[in-house]
Amino acid sequence: MFEKILIANRGEIALRVLRACREMGIHTVAVHSTADADAMHVRLADESVCIGPPNAMDSYLNIPAIIAAAEITGADAVHPGYGFLSENANFANIVNEHGITFIGPSPEHMSLMGDKIAAKATMRSLGVPVTPGTDSPITSDQEAEKAAAEIGYPLLIKASAGGGGRGMKLVHSESELSTALSAARSESRLAFGDDSVYIERFLSRPRHIEVQVLADHYGNVVHLGERDCSLQRRHQKVLEETPSPALNSEQRKHIGETVVRAIKEIGYLGVGTIEFLFENGEFYFIEMNTRLQVEHPVTEMITGIDLVREQIRVANGAPLGYTQEEIEMRGHAIECRVNAENPQTFTPTPGTITDYHAPGGLGVRVDSGLYSGYRVPPNYDSLVAKLVVHGTSRNECLMRLRRALAEFVIGGIDTTIPLHQSLIADSDFVNGAYDIRWLEEFILPKG
After folding, report:
1. CA angle 187, 233, 432 (to 5 degrees)
2. What angle do CA 138, 142, 145 make, to 5 degrees?
3. How wide is the angle at C-alpha 136 spanned by C-alphas 132 and 142, nearest 5°?
C-alpha cells in the first residue's frame, strides 16, 4: 500500500481524502495556498506545503509547485479530489512521469471523456443511448444550419471541452443560430482554451441521472446505483439523492448493466460517473466524469462502500473486493450542498465563522472543513459543507433531513441552508415531481 499521499486539493474534499488515508494508515501531505494556511485539512495533515498565493492559477492549478511538493515530501501518490486538476490529463501524465502514482484513471481515458464529442461517439459505439446531435465539431454557420434542420429546434450548442453550463447556448429558432454559435465558441475559448462546439437536441423537462462505477486493473467493473442530480441552478447541482424517485427497478437495472458493459469494454480504471438526461422513459448519455463526484457521499450512505478508500486500493493494484451481486443498496440518501451564499440572491458571502454546530444523530453526516473562527476565503468555490442524510425510506430520510437542517448552525456568514429548508418542504419535491428546470422556477420569485 502507498506510504504517503499528497492531496492536491482543498476544503471538504481534501479533508475527506485525508480521513480515508488516516483510516488506512497512510501518511498525508496537504498542499495549500496562503489563503488556506489555517484550513482544517492543513491542520490535520501529517505534513503541509504552501504552494502559492490565493489565486488558484498560482497555487492549486500550479502543476510544477504541486510536483515539487510531492518530491520534497517523498509522496508516492497524488489524490486530485474533484475540480482543479482532477480531470487534467496533462497533470496525470506529469505525475506518472515523475514516478508518482496518480489516483485516478489513465490520462488516455481522461482525454477521451474530456472531449464531449469523442465521448459521445465512443458511448454510441458501445451501445449506450446518446442524445441525438452532431458527431464532430461545428466549423461554420452552414454546418450548423444543416445540423439544426436535421435535429430540429429548440437545440443546444455545447462546448466540446467543458461542462458546468459554460459554452452552452439554447437556440429556439434559425434566426438565433449564428449569434449563439459565435457566443458559444467565444465562451468556450475563454473557459477551456478550446472553441470546439457541437449541437444536440434540447430536451424540455428531463431528469439528470448519473450512474456511479468502479473498476480495477483486472477487468472487474461494478456500478453502485444511480443518483438523481436534477435540482440545479445555472447547471450547477444543489441537491442530490439516491435512489432516484423517477426510476423503477427495471430501468435502474437496465441502465446499470448498460454502463458496466461499456466501462468494461474500454478498460477503465478507478471511479467514474456516467451522466444521462432521462425523459419519457429514455436515457440519453451526456458526459462521463473521470473523477470522484461532489455528491459521492449519498452513494456511500446506501451501499456502505467507501469510494475514496476504493480509489486508493485499485490505484495501488488491488482487485475489487466484491461482485455486483454482493452490492446491496439500502434505504435512501439525500445530500444538500451548503454554500457561502445569500440564499435569495446567491451572492457569495465569504467571511469569518462566528458560530458553528454540525447536526448529528443516526444517519446524519456532515462533510465540511468549517470551524468557529475559520475565515472563508473569497478566492474559491462557495461550497463550505455537505449535509448528507440516510433513512430506511425516502420519507424517513426527508424527516431526518428537516431535523438536521434545523440543527445546523453556521454563524457569521449567509449560507444556503434556508433555501434547502424551503425546497424540501415543497410538495413537488416531497412527491419527487421535479426535473432540471424545477429549481430555477422555484427560486425565480425570490431572485
Report:
1. 140
2. 85
3. 90
Residue tagged active-site, from 16, 207, 291, 400 = 291
For the domain 132-201, what is the CATH superfamily, name and number?
A: ATP-grasp fold, A domain (3.30.1490.20)
- pLDDT on residue 162: 72
- Could you tell me which CATH number the domain at 207-446 has? 3.30.470.20
What is the domain class of 4-103 according to CATH? alpha beta
> How many whole angstroms from its chain centre is CA 314?
20
77: left (phi over 0), alpha (psi -120 to 50) or beta: beta
- Cis amide bond preceding 343, omega within 30: no
Q: Are 368 and 358 in contact (CB under 8 A)?
A: yes
| Domain range summary for the chain, segments of one domain joined by + | 4-103, 132-201, 207-446
Q: Is 291 marked active-site?
A: yes
How confident is the chain (447 residues) per 10-residue block, as mean pLDDT?
98 98 98 98 98 98 98 98 97 98 98 92 95 89 93 93 82 94 92 91 95 98 98 94 98 98 98 97 96 98 98 98 96 98 96 98 98 98 98 98 98 98 97 96 70
